[in-house]
């Protein structure tokens, strides 16, 4: 292991990365203040999704672990624990970078055992988070996929994807490329607190617009829909209307899920920002990580109705495949609404 300590307060490399070649850097620029990058040379890059997974894709590529977009609800927080890293603030600031991802991918795609399956990216953490501006791994990854005409999809909140527009167009000319942007809300006040490191929702919708203008269809994963915070009829309408105006090919709603790791972090945020909602969330998520089926059905129905009203078509084949919702069923709880959340400003 190589250990290179740069800057003040660089923490120890995560013990789960021992045995790999690690360089950890704390970058003292305004953009990355307080962020540590753990640069590793991965041994493999194409991940096979376990058969028991409910994910509708079989293979993924994740050049990063951790995400400076810092969404308080992020379901990937738990995976930082596998590296002995903190799943709260550590997830937002301790970023593992697989610096050899492009060359490794090119090699694995050329191996005789690789059968050309669709590869999904942005399924664990965002591959166009701010670190990508520094490490520029995605151009090499897209080039490798383009050169093998290997179908792929990208889900992102990062406007940085537009940097790679020419490459995406080249790839789309030879294979199936599905781009999906994640926009669960357009409420500026809520966005600043719940997704503090992300580009604003309007900027993300600009990405949808720009891709469409350049002949790359883009869908929107309307996720997560935050119960009691961003799910009023007026809020859903504002979000779907903005998504439609951006020219999205489809919109797929997904209610918040709270797996261990994300749950503790999100609930602490909720207790601080919206204490009146804590009890309602405890009731809604009493059955596990997923909102009950009645809630999912209600959100899906409302969003689909709005999508039809605003003329957004159904999800097309090849668009980013979003996780299927849980089939858990539970009775609708009788809890009084939090009066505070009706005051949120809609864009
Ligand atoms: S952008 Fe995606 S991966 Fe990054 S913190 Fe937000 S939800 Fe997690």
Automatic annotation (TrEMBL):
Pfam families per UniProt: Radical_SAM
Keyword RNA-binding recorded: no
GO molecular function: catalytic activity; iron-sulfur cluster binding; metal ion binding
Region (Disordered) residue spans: 315-347
UniProt xrefs under SUPFAM superfamilies: Radical SAM enzymes
Radical SAM core domain: residues covered: 53-302
UniProt keyword list: Iron, Iron-sulfur, Metal-binding
Name of the protein described by the UniProt record: Radical SAM protein
Organism for this UniProt entry: Streptomyces sedi
